[in-house]
Inverse folding.
């Protein structure tokens, strides 16, 4: 009786660990495939393109002073 119970516990443990391992391995493979597909469809922007678009935003004087004051308060802490 006790041998049978131990055998069933080991069997259930192995099936559970095997299922988790297969699920995680499958998830890694699918994630890598999605990454490859997305990089082929939409290539990443270069750093130069992203900085040009970010610098073109105009900030008025009042907003600039508010941002500078907030940064100064944050640095003091």
């Amino acid at each position: 009786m006790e041998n049978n119970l131990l055998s069933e516990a080991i069997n259930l443990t192995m099936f559970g660990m095997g299922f988790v391992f297969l699920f995680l391995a499958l998830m890694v493979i699918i994630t890598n495939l999605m990454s490859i597909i997305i990089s082929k469809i939409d290539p990443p922007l270069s750093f130069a393109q992203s900085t040009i678009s970010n610098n073109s935003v105009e900030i008025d004087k009042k907003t600039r002073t508010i941002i500078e004051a907030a940064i100064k308060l944050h640095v003091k802490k």
Notes: The chain has three helices and no strands. The two ends are 67 Å apart (CA to CA). The longest helix spans residues 2-41. Residues 45 and 51 are 10 Å apart (CA to CA).
